[in-house]
What does this fold into?
Amino acid sequence: MKMRRLFKGGAVLLGLLGFLLGTSALARTARPLIDPILVTPSTEIDTCLDCHGVEGFAVPKGETGDSLKRALHVQPETFKNSIHAEVRCVSCHVDIEQMPHKANVKRSVDCITCHQQQLDENKDETQELVDLTRSLTHAMVGLPSTVQIKKQSELTIQARHYLASVHAQPRKDDPSRVNATCWDCHGKHDVFPMDSPNAQIYRTSTPETCGACHEKELKDYTQSVHGAPVKRFGKLEPAVCSDCHTAHKISVVEQDPAKLLITENCGDCHKEYYDSYRETYHGQVVKLGYTHTAKCHDCHSHHATRKADDPLSMVHANNRLATCSECHKDATEGYVTFQPHGSTHDYENYPELWLTSKFMIVLLTGVFLFFWTHSLLWYFREKKEHEEGHVTIRVEEDGTPVKQGQYVQRFTQGWRIAHLVLALAVMTLVITGTTVLFADSFWAPTVMILLGGAEIAAIIHRIAAVTFGIIFIGHLVVIFHKIYVVNKGQKFNWFGPDSLVPRWQDLLDFIAMCKWFFGKGPRPIFDRWTYWEKFDYWAPFWGMFIIGLSGLILWFPSFFASFFPGWIFNVATIVHGEEAFLAAVFLFTVHFFNCHFRPEKFPMDVVMFTGSMTLEEFKEERTIEYNRLVQENKLDQYLVGAPSARMNKYSRILGFSLIAVGVIELVLVLVGFIQGIFS
It folds into this structure.
């Protein structure tokens, strides 16, 4: 009995001891096998690879070990061959504080801090590189270090671009996440150097990388002229997503910056087509920074770009009218033969454009050579006579005309107002038109902003054109009304002294003028109208027909396309721009010289603003008309009082203002023309 009790008591003690031992074992298995190790910036990569370098290393995604696993394995050799081989793990995985890692911590990777720090550290070196490159003396410094600085700078600048991009913005469905992280595009531990042969994989895999989020775009792209060679044959030359959208500076495609950048990027591969596109109104407006006109992807599709002879292409002959109708709702069949990439240098494919361009070049060259030579000879001859005392400039010390004797009325108030309105309309047409014509010039974008934008400038341009047309046609109505209604019964001599129709005497006057230029004869005397005044008068007739008609064609394309072929718009664009350039330069050089800048008139002649000139000046400049009026006893009909001091003052202010505007526009036009030649 005693032995049984002793045995039972021993069993209880043994059970209690076993329970205690089991509890202790459970306690040991419930805590880490090793004590936590704090992670510092100096923690070595191999320390991390002790676990993550083990093949198959993973953790369950669910609550038990039987659930799907999240792989945490890193290929050591792949990582050591990457661009980040010398970067410690904790430099990127900034949330890691200890090993083993804390549970229930939201993991994050920081790519930006490191790249940002590199930019700040190399800021001075980067600026030095820019300065050296600009001065073309970079070969004098250590090239390897310079290239290294440039590479670092490019990487860090791209980081800044990413932060400003749409990819770095919060997602709409989950604001706690961004649209795309660095590793979504670049991978995680296998980021190769750009000069590594392995880096080519990035280019060919770019569409699939982007397509992970942009599935529809990827589908269209892989069937396009760009994507098919990349997808099927691994070609590196065709455009991939980053060529059009850039690698990091990605903005919302519905916004203007993205549309402008994508259009410009098309020119990186298709320079010839891009250059011809920029010669059209579409391209000129886009170059100025506005997107309401057609861009490359509007006609060729955003991602499903196909060759022009592909039946599915938007620019195929069978589909082109529908494509044009996207913007031009009332487009007609004439649009189909429009040449959006027509070149004036290709006679074989675009003979109409080539011939038009060469004709305008000959016309401009001939006009400028003739009249600039005429003006120079006139200037030097008149200046010489002035220095010899043969010419008296009739102005006071303050520049106002001398009020001596009687004045002769030269222009009525109606003609002076018409001249002023016409001048304002022409100057408005010049500034609004040449800003588009010379869209590549440095001043054009600023001027366009001052005008209120391309669409507002187009409205202003058309208002000025209508104003010009009204003045032009109105003056013809007044002339014919005076000839056939007011002076009914009196036959008008179309080749007489009061007519602006050129006559034989004008040629004789020109010959006499040329003799005077070279000192071979006296200065000729003139009647009411000189040969250069008649040219100034008839030039708008040519300009009104050429510029006006071409402008109407471009203004109302659907109407004219109903009976004209599409290439007529290409010709109209060339003629409209070149003739406008001719008119602007001629007016602000030759016309200004004839009226204001020659020694006898400098700095300006106010007769068109006051309407009258002194009798002495009239007698000297219009000797034949003066003698005829005296013989016919009609001189008294034209004599008027001297303009008031107030009239003289405001006439000079107005005149100087118009001349100043004209000279400024002349400078802008010439700068735009010269810049276009060398660009």
Q: What stands out?
A: The radius of gyration is 41 Å. The first strand starts at residue 37 and ends at 38. The CA atoms of residues 260 and 308 lie 23 Å apart. The chain is about 60% helix and 5% strand.
